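If it is no trouble, can you show me the amino acids of a protein and the tokens describing how it folds?
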Amino acid sequence: MQLLVIKRSGSREPYTREKLRAGVSRACSKTMVTAEQIDDLVEAVENELAADGKREVTATNLGEIALAKLRNLDQVAYVRFASVYRQFRSIEDFVAELHSLTGQGASGAKKSDTERSTATISGTTDGKSNQPS
């Protein structure tokens, strides 16, 4: 039985292992994740999809399954993959995901943590902008 992937546009295309593997490999580039670990992850995703027994899966659901596996494998690869599948549009999206990954949760971050993150991103250490007034 052929699994179909429902893309965000609503179009359907056949699931291909190579496409999932390529996406995971890109996320894992320059990390300590091995080719064997990537193959194992893809296999685990496929096993989960097969156990589900559905003939169609959304691209988003496919990405979330892969993310769940990546989360335990490599945090940098996880955030890279999440930025694509969750379509991050701003630095705040990255910061919220990092808080989630570290267990702080977006709403659980202290103001000083948020200020520190913003200061680091803007290249300052005192929380003030280097931009001229």
